[in-house]
Structure formats: structure tokens, C-alpha cells
Amino acid sequence: MRIEQFEQFIALAHHQHFRKAAEVCNLSTSALTRSIQTLELDLACNLLTRSTRSVKLTAAGEVFLQYCQQALDNHALLKQKLSKFTEAKNEKIVIGYSPEAIGLVPQACGKFMQQFPNISIEMQLQDTDTLLQNIRNGQLDLAINAPITTSSGEMFCLPEQVVMFCHKDHPILQSSPVQLSQITKLPMLATVSTNQALGKLINQAATNLNKQDSLRLGTFEQVVNKLSDRNHIALTTLDLMQQVTNNKELVNLSEMIEQSEKLNLELQIAKANLTAPNISELLNFITLEAGARPEIELAKATF
């Protein structure tokens, strides 16, 4: 197994779709498929269940996903600890990125290091909350993440492993597509997830909708009972998707929300690094790489 395979599996788990995951990993769909098949052969178990439209993690896949995330964290920590033993005191830039940026950060950083071999880059794959915390406390020089909103305040991409649903008689269903401005005005519920990674995705979605402080958690049955008031909407994860589908009183809102087709990313820069020459050079490489991809829209912010 290789480090890049861990990143590929995380991308596939995030997007639940081979073509989308292949695009962010800068691979062909067939190459990603072969890579995942190699993992399954090596581990002697099925990591995914496949359909014509999407893929889902098996129980073994959920375990392997946690291993991938831990392995990448440990890999970054190992490089940090070993850096003091290197003969040359190379300069280092630490950049964090969310799963949405898997197809941008490694490619841009790789090109940068080819031109500047004396400058090392430590890349850390992290969730949204960790990225924001680490860029603010100075543990990261740069971070690339899916932003909470665009300048219009209307951008929101629901994580593909999170499902939004409501009662079939909810007034919001009278308009199609459902507008984000309607969603943000409604009280929100969420099911409790025993899977830490899925729980983080629900928290990310709630944070992006500015519902992190008012979000109420409960079991699936408790959430469904509360939805009968025709006022609340709810979040759950794909492992409970079948229960949403089988309940005739519920409607899946996820596919009805008007969302941008572009991949909106935000490049977050620590204020102390704004004038650092090496950071400026890396910013140029990231900007050029994003500019060469019409599906990516990159904004900048300072912390």
C-alpha cells in the first residue's frame, strides 16, 4: 500500500463516486478503479459496494477509512520528527487541506518542489474544523478548504456522505429547486452518528449553514418524530439513507437544493506569512494550478 492510495480512498469515501474522486485525484477513472481493486486484493476484503451511480463503504471500508486518516496523520508526524536529523537545514512550509482539495494541493506542491528542491512542504489532510483551528493558532502556514460561503453568501456544498431530509408536507417543498436562503432560516436536527468521520461531516455541514450552535441531536426515530411539526429539517449520513427512503413520510432534500457546479475552494493564509517570499511563490503555483482547471474557483482569505 502507498500513501497516495490512502489519499485516493479518502477522496472516494468523500465523493462516493469514482469519476468525481478520480477528477480530484487527477487520475483517470480506470486508474483509480485499479488502485482501489489492488487495495481490496491486498487486504483480502471488499471495501466498497458498487452501483451504477455511486459507491458506498462496507463495514470493512469504514474501518479502513479511519486507518487511512490515521496513517496520513502519522506520516506527517513522522516527517516532522525526522526533519531534525536531516543534514541540510531546508526551509519548510506546512499546508493543510480538506478532502475537496485532494486534486489541487499535491499537484501544485509537487511542481513547486521540483523548482525549489531546498524548500520542503509538509502536507496535512484535515477536516474543516481542524484546518480553521490550526491556521488560526499558527500550526499551518496555508490552508485550502471548501469555504462556508461565497461573497454572495449563497454557496453551500452538502458533503456527499450527508443527507438532508424533511417531512413530506414541509412548506419548503412548494418551491423547486429549494433555495439555500430558505434552508438557513429553518431549525435543524441531526442524527447521532457512531462513526467519528461521519459525525465530523455532519458538524461540517451544520457549521457551513451557521447551525452549529442551534443544532439538536437525536436518534433517527427521535428526529423523525420531531419532523412531524412540518417546521424542522434534518441531517443524517448515508448509512441511514435507506431508512429515509423507506419512510413514506420523509423526503430527501439533498438532490433538490440548488448548488453550484463549481468546486469552490478557499486559500487561507496566516497574516504573518503574507510577505514571506517562499509562501508567495507557493501561492503562485497553487493559483496557476487552480486557474488551469475550469471546475475550480479559488478565493483567498487571511487569518
Automatic annotation (TrEMBL):
Q: Which CDD domains match?
A: PBP2_LTTR_substrate
PROSITE patterns this protein is in?
A: HTH_LYSR
What are the residue boundaries of the HTH lysR-type domain, all occurrences included? 1-58
UniProt keywords (A-Z) are: DNA-binding, Transcription, Transcription regulation
- InterPro entries reported in the protein's UniProt record: LysR_HTH_N (IPR000847), LysR_subst-bd (IPR005119), WH-like_DNA-bd_sf (IPR036388), WH_DNA-bd_sf (IPR036390)
Q: Which residues cross the membrane?
A: none
What Pfam families does the annotation carry? HTH_1, LysR_substrate
Output the superkingdom of the source species: Bacteria
What the record says about family reads:
Belongs to the LysR transcriptional regulatory family.
- Please identify the protein, giving its name as recorded: LysR substrate-binding domain-containing protein
Which organism does this sequence originate in? Pseudoalteromonas spongiae
